[in-house]
Amino acid sequence: MPGLCHSLALLLSPRGQSVIIPPEVPPDVPAEFVKQSVSNSSITVAWSALPQGVAARMQLQTAGGDWSVINELAPVTSSCTIDSLSGSALGADTTYDVRIRAENSAGDSDWVVLTGLLTLPPTPTDLSAMTGGYGIVVLNWAPQSDYTYQIYRDGSLIASTAAQPYTDIIGMPAVTSAYQIAASSSAGSSDLSLSTSASSGAGSATYNYGSPVITCSDNPVTPGSLLTLSAPGAWGGDPTPSELSTQWQRDGSPISGQTSTSYTAVNDDIGHAITYVETYSNVLATASGTSNAIGVYAPMAPEHNGDPMIDAVGANYLEGTTLYVVSPGSWSGNPTSYSYQWNYNGITTGDDGNTLVASTAGNYQCIVTASNAVGSNDAVSNTISVTSPA
Predict the structure, then answer these.
(1) How far is Cα of residue 329 from the mean position of the Cα atoms in its chain?
(2) pTM recorded for the entire structure
(3) Beta strand 347-348 with 337-344: parallel, antiparallel or unpaired?
(4) Which of 5, 39, 121, 177 is the most buried (most CB within 10 A)?
């Protein structure tokens, strides 16, 4: 069998028997080829150890390429860390493909490919920390899109955020802390940034820079009049103060049970000044603001301060026009009702509504009577002259 001698080798066994040695064949593909780890500038892969006499050949390219621009390695162990491509360092947050094959003197195996190997994000830069408001430190850094940032205070992770600046609310003033951040993507987290330090803000005490304002529509204000808070006070401080209490006062002393935003004057208030007090507080101090004062007077009969006004419907001053009361006038004493009496040429007509048909030419007026529980007073309107048609 001459042909068989060309393809087989004969050896003698220890017992003198002949053993046929098969010819060398190309190796199997490397087994268990996996990504072990990544950094922002390298990729580490591993595979099962190759038999003696079998070497590994590895190639790297930017993901999606055609292997025309490659970095080729011949690793001698069953793991390899790749940190360059065609002489340049690997890029952070960049996707690469790696392939490996086995080689021996008889030939090469097929390639085994790992695709989509993403390196870690770059280490964040330009981290700064500055004192903020009460118990607060504010962090800023050079942001990059599509990353989440882990915030570390004194070595401990305190938050994860996609935006900056970041406000660290420590809650205590003058606390000095060291900060670092890491950028995170689907591949993992970058190395920690350089450390920077700052102290939390000391804040400021509560203060009032605008007094509350109270008003009353009655003039004068008497028992039964309603006083209301028309504008609250203006407050400052850091942290922002919050309302602690409100209180109506009579001559500076609290009126028991009166803490809402309105107050109805009573007989005990006659001859005294009513005010409204707000008290606000933050962790540093408490402060109060007092409103304007409104005096309360004994009831009195209405007194007119401005005359009533009458006019003709459609400004028609001819016989047959309708006259009406435009305004009963202005009054003090808080009238509770008004009544009307029309005069024609100084003589009472007997009509008591707030309108009158002027059927005869002449001069017309209306006497308005304002009344309250104490008494009443009269006021006379302007005069309208009604004429006959030409």
Answers:
(1) 52
(2) 0.60
(3) antiparallel
(4) 121
First to last CA, the chain: 155
Asked if 149 contacts 188 with a C-beta cutoff of 8 angstroms, the reply is no
Beta strands in 105-194 (DSSP E): 107-108, 112-118, 128-131, 136-140, 148-153, 156-161, 166-169, 176-185, 188-189
Sign of CA dihedral 253, 258, 264, 268: negative
Tell me how far apart the alpha carbons of residues 63 and 117 are, in angstroms, rounded to a whole number.
8
Residues 6+ apart with CB under 8 A from 337: 370, 371, 372
Determine the Cα–Cα distance for residues 62 and 57; give it in Å rounded to an integer.
18
Contacts of 243 (CB under 8 A, 6+ apart): 278, 279, 280
CA 55/CA 347 separation, integer angstroms: 132
Instruction: Note whether 202 and 172 are within 8 A (CB).
Output: no
**Nearest residue to 81 via CA among 117, 115, 49, 43:** 43
Q: Identity (one letter) of the amino acid at 40?
A: N
Alpha carbons 262 and 246: distance in angstroms, whole number = 11
* Max Cα distance, the chain (Å): 162
Amino acid identity at 245: S
* Per-residue CA distances from 388 to 318, 342, 385 (Å): 6, 19, 10
Can you give the pLDDT at residue 6? 24
Q: Identity (one letter) of the amino acid at 94? A: T
Q: What are phi and psi of 29, to 5 degrees?
A: -65, 150
**CB 166, CB 153: distance < 8 Å:** no
The per-residue pLDDT for range 104-139, each reduced to its tens digit, is: 999 999 999 999 999 999 999 999 999 999 999 999
Taking CB atoms within 8 Å and a gap of at least 24, the contacts of 149-157 are 149/124, 149/181, 149/182, 149/183, 149/184, 150/181, 150/182, 150/184, 150/189, 151/179, 151/181, 152/179, 152/180, 152/181, 152/182, 152/192, 153/177, 153/178, 153/179, 154/178, 155/180
CA distance 282 to 355: 61
Instruction: Categorize the per-residue pLDDT at 2 as very low, low, confident or very high, splitting at 50, 70 and 90.
Output: very low
**Rg of the chain taking only CA atoms, in angstroms:** 49
